[in-house]
Amino acid sequence: MTSPGLVSFQVVVKETDLWVSAGEARVDETRDLILDARHQIESYIRSHSDFLTTLRPCPDDPTAPPVVQEMIQAAKRSDVGPMASVAGAIAQFVGRGLLGSTDQVIVENGGDIFLRAKRDVTVSVFAGDSPLSERIGLLVSTRQMPAGVCSSSGTVGHSFSTGVADAVCVLSGSAALADAAATALCNTIRAKKDLGRIDERASRIQGVLGCLVILGRHMAAWGDIELVKV
């Protein structure tokens, strides 16, 4: 990830490995924000063990900490378990926190991104062995920011998916929702014919601005997104 005019740095806390681009290096602040987000999630899991393992949405909990509430709502809209949104939720929490001290920030968490910049940003889409991998990008305009761009795959990475898409990339105003929605949509791609229904399925998830699906040599796109050659 290259971000002209911004300073990029990496911060790792346990399983959370962030690549951040901002107006200046804010390593300590980023680490504190990661620790805060992880504490909220880990402490909630200690008293609500199902939150970690369920593949279904959890009930609303007004007593839950802010990050957890974001995850609960994202999962509810997407009809998946709350942990499907965890990477996007952490990227978003850190990004929003850093915006208190910098006016531009891009936070990447395992391929899930929260961003706000003063210029349009192109996000390259990695799709494993697909010949389309890293040849297509999503152009995120400043009018759509702050935004989340998150991906799920049935063929790449360790995340659980019941689908077979090489990449499902979702754009939303919420990175937590984009993450959960990417998982939900990826789960529905079982064969090439399913690409033809992605518009119907994506439009049902309130808050999704657009999505791109790559399956081998084939792709489908829906919504307010602009695709560019990388």
In short, what is this structure?
The protein is of the alpha+beta class and 230 residues long. Helices cover 30% and strands 27% of the residues. It has an eight-stranded antiparallel beta sheet.
Characterise this structure:
- With 230 residues, the chain is an alpha+beta fold.
- It is built from six helices and eleven strands.
- It has an eight-stranded antiparallel sheet with strand order 1-2-3-4-7-8-9-10. The chain has a three-stranded antiparallel sheet with strand order 5-6-11, with no helix packed on it.
- Strand 9 (208-215) and strand 10 (218-223) form a beta hairpin.
- Helix 3 (66-78) crosses helix 4 (86-98) and helix 3 runs parallel beside helix 5 (175-187).
- 48% of the residues are buried.
- The model has no long low-confidence stretch (mean pLDDT 94).
